[in-house]
Amino acid sequence: MKGSSDISEPLNTAKQADPANAGAISRNQLTPEAAISPQGHDVPGHDHALPTATSADDCCSVDQPAKKPPTNTRDHGDHTHDAAGANPYLWPGVSLVLLLSGLALDYAAVAFFSGPVRLGWYGLAFVLVGWKVIRSALGSIPSGNIFNEFLLMSLATLGAFAIGEYPEGVAVMLFYTVGELFQDAAVNRAKRSIRALLEIQATEVTLVRGGQNLVLDPKQVQLGDVIEVKPGEKVALDGTLQTAAASFNTAALTGESAPQTKQAGDTVLAGMINLERLVQIAVTATYQDTKLAKILAMVQDAVGRKAKTQLFITRFAQVYTPIVVALATLVIVLPYFIVDDYVFRTWLYRALIFLVISCPCALVVSIPLGYFGGIGAASKAGILFKGSNFLDVMREIDTVVMDKTGTLTQGVFAVQQVQPAPGTDATELLRLVGALEAKSTHPIAKAVVAHVGSAAVNTVVDQVEEIAGHGLRGRVSGHEVLAGNAKLLTRFNVPYPAAVEQVVDSIVVVAIDGQYAGYLTVADAPKPDAAQAVQELKADGITKLVMLSGDKDSITQRVAKELGIEEAHGGLLPEDKARYVQQYLTEGRKLAFVGDGVNDAPVVALADVGIAMGGLGSDATIETADVVIQTDHPSKIATARRIARATHSVVWQNIWLAFGVKAVVLALGAGGLATMWEAVFADVGVALLAILNAVRIQRMNFTKP
User: Fold this and answer.
1) Which pLDDT band, with edges at 50, 70 and 90, does 30 fall under?
2) For residues 394, 606, 309 and 385, what is the CA-based torsion angle, rounded to 10 degrees?
3) Are the C-beta atoms of residues 569 and 547 closer than 8 Å to each other?
4) Residues above pLDDT 70, as percent of the chain
5) Residue 447: count of CB within 10 angstroms of its CB
6) For residue 515, is pLDDT > 90?
7) Residues 682, 683, 689, CA angle at the centre, nearest 5°?
8) 403 is catalytic
9) CA dihedral (185, 186, 191, 193) positive or negative
C-alpha cells in the first residue's frame, strides 16, 4: 500500500523517492505536452502519472501506460488522439450529423439514398470516428494484446457493415469515441490543478548582498543569504526572521485564517505572505527544499500513486471478446461438418448477425447510464463527482479524515464568550474594546468589532499603538485601554487571574486604567450540520473518523469533542497530515479525505477519494479533488455515500439485464432464429430499458438516511 507505517518517518515525496526527480516540479518544466501525458509530465526523471479524474461520461476510466514519449499527440493505451491544437470534437460532430441525416433519409426512403451512395454516406461517418480504433486494434497485435475492446468494436462494427446494417456500426463507434474524448477532458483538468498549485510559488526574490538589493530567481539564492520581503509579498524561501517582529498570512501552508505573529529568530516558511512591514529573512533552505516545494511534490507524488480503476468493459472484453470471436468462427465452420446442404454465405450471414448481436453496445450504454443517473442525483444535492469511478470508491470507504477550519467549522472568527472581571460592566467593556479594535485590521479585531456593532460608534479613540505580537494600546473615552493577549498585560505589569492562561480559544484580554477588566474569546464556530455529519457517517458504517488540523491542538481537541470525533490531531503542517493519511492507507483502510485549503491539496490527492468544500475551498484543492461539495455542508458526505450505493445497485441491474437478453439472443442468432430486429433489440432495446432504470436514481430521496 501507500506510505509509511511509522508516523515519525520522513514523508516520501517525489524528490525523496527518486533523487533524479529533484527540481522536477518547476514551472518551466511543466509544459502543456508534459502535463497531459498519461505516463507523467514528460520531464526527465519525473515518471509518475497524473490523476485520471474520470468524467461523468466515461465510466470507470483506465490508465494505460504510454508506449512512447508523447510529442504533439496523446496515447491513451494504444489509442492515439488528435494533436493538442485540434478540436477533438470536430470529426465526431460531423459523424453525428451524417448519421442522423442518413437515418432521416432511410426513414423517408429517398430514392437516391441507396447502393453505393448509402454505403459511402455511412462509410464516411464511420471512418471519421472509427479509423483510430481499427488502427489501435491492428497496432496491438504485435504486442500480443489482441483481444481487447478495440478488436471487439472493430469486428462488431465492420460486421454490421458487412451485412448492411450501416447505422448500427456508425452509432456504436461514435458512442465509444465520444467516451474517449471525455476522458481526455478529465486529464486536462488534472493538468490545470497542478498549474494552479504552482502559482503559489514566488517567481522572484529580493536578495540583500553588499548593501545592495538584487532581484533574483529564488533558485539562485544560497543558504545563509538574507532576503527582503515587502508588505503584501509572498515569502519565497524558508528562513529565520531577522526583523524584530512581523505578522504573516499562513493560509497557504496551514489553512488557518488567523495571521501568525513571528518574533526575531522564529521560522518563516515559503508561501507565507508578509502583512505589515518590510522584513528581512536569513535563508535556511534552498528553493527545492522549502516546505512549499515539498507540498507541491507531495501532490504530484500522491497523484502518481492514486489507485487506478479499469473500465469494466475492458476487463470483460479480455474474456468476452475471444469467446465471441471463437463462437462466431464456429458458426461458420462447424455446420460444414454437420449440415448436408451447407451454404457458406448463409452461415457467414448468421455469424455476422452473431457478431452484431454480441456487440457490447448495450453494455457500453447501460453501465455509464447508471453512473450518469447517480452523478445527476448528486449534482441536484450539491455534490459534484468528477468521475463515475469515484461513486464506486465512495461506496467502499470505511475511513473519513477531515480538516477542521472551513470543513467542519465555518472558517470565520466570531466572539464566543464575554467574561468581564468582577465589578466591570460588560456593556462598557465591549464599547471600549470595540472602539479600540476598530483601529486594527487583524481578523480577531474585526470579529470583536462585528460583535460590538454600533455600540462603539462615535467613541473617541486616540494615541493608538499597535504592539507587534501583543495587541493594542490606546486612550478610549479618556481611559487607557489595553486589548490583546496575556503577554500584553504582563508587559505593562497588569496582574490577571491564572484562569486566563487556561482558555483554549483565541483570547482578547482587556485592562482599563491599569486594572484587569476581563476577556473575550474568539473562535471559529462549527458548521450547523457538522455534528449531524459525524453522526450520519458513524451510522452509515464508517468505522474510523479523524480530524487533522493546522490549528493548535487544544482547539482541535475541543472541536473534536464537541462534534463527537474520537481521534483528532492539531498543530499539523501538510506533510504531517499526509503522514497520518499514509499510515491509515498502509493499514489497508479505504479512505476519504475532506478539506478546503491549498494546504489540503496534497492529502486530497493522496486519499482514495479526495473531497473538497467547493464554496470556501481553494481552486487548487477543488481541482485536485475527486468529489466537490458545492454547498460546503459536511453532512453531504453521507449523502454522497447513499447516492453511491444506489448507483451501484442500478448499474448492476443494468449489467445483468444486458447479459441476460444478450445471452438469449446470441443463442437464437447462432441457430438462425434471430434477425437483425432481435439484434437491434438486444442492443437498443436493452439500452432503452437501462435508461428507464437509471432515471429512477434521479427520483430517489437521498436527504435522509
Assistant:
1) very low
2) 40
3) yes
4) 71
5) 23
6) yes
7) 85
8) yes
9) positive
**Strand bridging mode 409-420 / 239-241:** unpaired
Cα distances (angstroms) measured from residue 19 to each of 25, 66, 301, 420: 13, 23, 13, 59
Whether pLDDT at 432 is above 60: yes
pLDDT digits (tens, 9 = 90+) for 56-89: 333 333 333 333 333 333 333 334 444 444 677 8
Within 513-657, strands assigned E span 515-526, 544-548, 567-569, 591-595, 609-613, 627-629
| Catalytic-labelled residue, pool 42, 75, 403, 596 | 403
pLDDT at 683: 62
Determine whether 508 is exposed, middle or buried from the number of CB atoms within 10 Å of its CB (0-12, 13-18, 19+): buried
Nearest to 63 by CA among 419, 340, 314: 314
Q: Name the DSSP letter for residue 682.
A: I
Q: Are 626 and 392 in contact (CB under 8 A)?
A: no
Look at the block and give the residue holding cell 455542508. Answer: 633
Residue 596 and residue 599: Cα distance in Å, rounded?
8
Tens of pLDDT, residue by residue over 646-694, are: 988 888 888 888 778 878 877 776 666 776 557 656 666 676 677 677 7
Cα separation, 380 vs 421, whole angstroms: 51
Specify the pTM.
0.56
- Measure Cα distances from 188 to 192, 529, 624, 676 in Å: 6, 34, 12, 40
- Tens-place pLDDT, residues 113-136: 999 999 999 999 999 998 988 998
- What pLDDT is stored for residue 637 in this prediction? 93
Give the total residue count for the chain. Answer: 705
Report residue 497 CA to chain centroid gap: 48
The span from the CA of 558 to the CA of 562, in Å, is 6
Q: Spell out the residues 6+ positions from residue 212 whose beta carbon is closer than 8 angstroms to its own.
A: none
- Asked if 224 and 283 touch (Cβ cutoff 8 Å), the reply is yes
